[in-house]
TrEMBL record:
PROSITE patterns: ADH_ZINC
InterPro entries noted in UniProt: ADH-like_C (IPR013149), ADH-like_N (IPR013154), ADH_Zn_CS (IPR002328), ER (IPR020843), GroES-like_sf (IPR011032), NAD(P)-bd_dom_sf (IPR036291), SDH-like (IPR045306)
Descriptive protein name: Sorbitol dehydrogenase
Domain Enoyl reductase (ER): 13-344
UniProt main location, coarse: other
Family membership: Belongs to the zinc-containing alcohol dehydrogenase family.
Length: 353
């Protein structure tokens, strides 16, 4: 085996490429030769700020949690995977069989392992060990890159499930970054009849239009939340049943509440400041439900079915590709907001997408 080149964050602003030992899988693990790993906004945030909320980088940490790879070693107790299998990695693995695990909401378990969340290492490296139960075999017609994109796609699935999107639902998505775009794709796949999407960037909204948005709307920072809500209502012909807020911006959260029809649902996906001023009484008297989203759970099988059947096409999301050796340039590209999704290719010998 060759060396285990890894992308390691040592402290705020200190990102390094370094060799680490190749891990040995335990009885319930598999060792993966990583293939495609996407860069997430959270990876860049840790790099630039050294923390996200209460999660602080205190020791060197391997980044990366949007990943797919090939099984090269199998733990003694693993039965459902074999050497050579191509798999997508679900980065959140519960450590305890607590009440959240038992109720199927393991993403809320306080002790969960999660790739590239301090102090847990991620998978932006050549070789990575992971729980076999959280590695999902990819069908032959699903590429490695699509496998890596299941992680952001899962955020969209979880958000749309929490929102109750179904046949005939009208939806507003606030923000057309990678997460806003996957929420758009999933909402359409789940039967949403009309989807409006907002962003400050007309470039990003072009991609949203290509991916099936019915009403892309450019907003300006000086627009009031009520003005944006009024414009959205005018485009859709009525207030949306569901608003999925993906920016974390206070004004956008305010828009989400004002625009959603009475009895509808606002789902908060984007993370902003801990405290936000929102028109809560407006939501209360109109029975608008406000629901949070924390990552995802039980989404990988559905995502794989969506990709394999062709119901969802995530391929256009990948706009930049870099070899693992050029990780710092790849991170810089993401930090500058260029393109949509930057993908790192960890396997020098495998040219498959």
């Amino acid at each position: 085996m060759d060396t285990n080149l890894s992308v390691v964050l040592h402290a705020q602003g200190d990102l390094r490429l370094e060799e680490r030992p190749i891990p040995e899988p335990g009885p319930n693990d598999v060792l993966l030769r990583m293939h495609s790993v996407g860069i997430c906004g959270s990876d860049v945030h840790y790099w630039q700020n050294g923390r996200i909320g209460d999660f602080v980088v205190k020791q060197p940490m391997v980044l990366g949690h949007e990943a797919a790879g090939t099984v090269v070693k199998v733990g003694s107790a693993v039965r459902h995977l074999s050497v050579g299998d191509r798999v997508a990695v679900e980065p959140g693995v519960p450590r305890d069989m607590d009440e959240f695990f038992k109720s199927g909401r393991y993403n809320l378990s306080p002790s969960i392992f999660f790739c590239a969340t301090p102090p847990d290492d991620g998978n932006l490296c050549r070789y990575y060990k992971h729980s076999a139960n959280f590695c999902y075999k990819l069908p032959d017609n699903v590429t490695m890159e699509e496998g890596a994109l299941i992680e952001p796609l899962s955020v969209g699935i979880h958000a749309c499930r929490r929102a109750g999107v179904s046949l005939g639902t009208t939806v507003l998505v606030c923000g057309s970054g990678p997460i806003g775009l996957v929420c758009l794709l999933v909402a359409k796949a789940m039967g949403a009849s009309l989807v409006a999407i907002t962003d400050l960037s007309s470039e990003r909204l072009k991609m949203a239009k290509q991916l099936g948005a019915d009403f892309p709307l450019v907003v300006a920072k000086e627009d009031t939340p009520q003005e944006v809500a009024h414009r959205v209502e005018g485009m859709l012909g009525s207030q949306p049943h569901v608003t999925i807020e993906c920016t974390g911006a206070e004004s956008s959260m305010q828009t989400a509440i004002y625009v959603t029809r009475s009895g509808g649902v606002v789902v908060l996906v984007g993370l902003g400041a801990e405290m936000a001023s929102v028109p809560l009484v407006n939501a209360a008297v109109r029975e608008v439900d406000i629901r949070g989203v924390f990552r995802y759970c039980n989404t990988w099988p559905m995502a794989i079915s969506m990709l394999s059947s062709g119901k969802v096409n995530v391929k256009p999301l990948v706009t930049h590709r870099f070899p693992l050796e050029e990780a710092v340039q790849a991170f810089e590209t993401t930090r500058r907001g260029q393109g949509v999704k930057v993908m790192l290719k960890c396997d020098q010998d495998d040219q498959e997408l």
